[in-house]
Amino acid sequence: MNSQQSGHPTGEGAHALRFAALLATYMQSANLPVPNAVLRLIQGSLSMTDDQAGWIFTSYLAASAITLPVAQWLAGRYGLKLVYQTALAFFALGLLLATLATTPLEFVGARIIQGLASGVLAPLSMAISMETLALEKRAKFGATWTAIVLFGIVSGPSIGGWVGEHFDWRPIFYISLPLSAYIFLVMALLLKEKKAEQRPSFDFFGFGTFTLGLISLQMLLDRGERLDWFASTEICLEALGCALGFYLFAVHVLTAKVHFLNKRLFDDRNFVLSTVIFFAVGFVLLSTMALTSPMLDEILGYPPDTTGFLTIPRGVGLVGAFLLMGRVPERFDRRGFVAAGVALVVYANWLMLGYSPLMDEWPVAVAGAVQGIGIGVLMPSLTKVAFSTLDPALRPEGTGLFNLSRVYGSTLGVAIVQLFFFNNTQAMHSALVSNLTPYRAAALSVPTSLQALEGLNEMITGQAAFIALIGQFKILLVVMLVVSPLVVFLRKPAAAN
């Protein structure tokens, strides 16, 4: 279906529509990590505890994971233009509520609204962009769209850091308000309403049970430490919801003839293995960012703009490598690039184990750049391998599941590393303090005034947090090492023959 057949404008109108859709793609992806470099400012302003800070990311990710699978159905049922503009309005509402928040709960609620809208905007922005292109140009457009998503993810913290350092943390959300208004106006003027000719069907039972399991697991991980785990009725209910949701979903997939995950997808070895590796990539990418910024900002005391700028090497490496991979001739076997990408990400995570409180900015910049290059090589190569042997009729569903695996990996990854980070910080703090007996204090001439003891406790807390942080980088290294042997079992893609 070309742009004329679909009722969309051609020429300058099509360019304006595509630009607005791509701007929305960048905006929703950049707003995920944009608070990363100003966490200390947000926490201080809202009296937010360290464990609550993790909700800033997990709430956005989990909310987008809920609406992402149902976005196309909503557009087919109620109309692409209506659903898209509604999502834009909710996204702008979430931005506004974030700037008005005075408590952690209000801020997290605003992030949930942003995430719910983001899960709709991302796939529909791509659909709108594709509609404005001729058929022969659509195949290569997916790489452009993915590059914009990645650029948003890696550039968001640098923007937030600069704005937060020179103004405040609230203006980082104001930036997207005029962008949302511009996109809304372009869509209102140029986008033609489009609904499915027949009322679309959707597996709400499968979607609902999977969502129940995922959200229950997310809540369990986020709130377990605060509520003393299974001593809390809420945590027990969330654990029950998680087990029940995933159990019902598994039974549904195995017994139902039609559901929103086609069982034939799991017959393709390349697709299944690539999806698992892609899950690990999502687990590592955003989790690294969620750990690095607090390390620089809170433990090492870097200003927000420096914290944000240190994400640039990762972004340049990732987007640059991703774009260069698009120029690799088709005759080259992509499995070699997958192996190289995995090796580079593993090496980058290994470099992160050498972080020290005495280091300068260079180790962070180098490790980030290496990881960015590795992921930039890995993602397009993995996509090529995943779909090279898949039945073309299954590719639309496969694309949805493949992208969801990265989102789910990011959601669980951030929650897990945040959980273990705070647990290990407390354990390490206790271990360090246990060695500070009165006799040791006297021998080491440690001052015992209240002010001196507060300073000593702050120093010990910083050391405990840094040791715990290195432990979380080790988790990310292990995740990539666990999935790395899967590369050996990938079949040679047909395109490489």
UniProtKB/TrEMBL annotation:
Where found, per UniProt? Cell membrane
- PROSITE patterns reported in the protein's UniProt record: MFS (PS50850), SUGAR_TRANSPORT_2 (PS00217)
Topology of this chain in the membrane:
Multi-pass membrane protein
Q: What are the entry keywords? A: Cell membrane, Membrane, Transmembrane, Transmembrane helix, Transport
Q: Which InterPro entries match?
A: EmrB-like, MFS, MFS_dom, MFS_trans_sf, Sugar_transporter_CS
**Listed Pfam families:** MFS_1
**Domain Major facilitator superfamily (MFS) profile, chain residue ranges per copy:** 17-496
- Indicate the transmembrane segments per the record: 55-75, 82-102, 108-129, 141-160, 172-190, 202-221, 227-250, 271-296, 308-325, 337-356, 362-382, 403-422, 464-490
State where it is primarily located.
membrane
The protein's name in its UniProt record: DHA2 family efflux MFS transporter permease subunit
Q: What is the organism field in this record?
A: Pseudomonas migulae
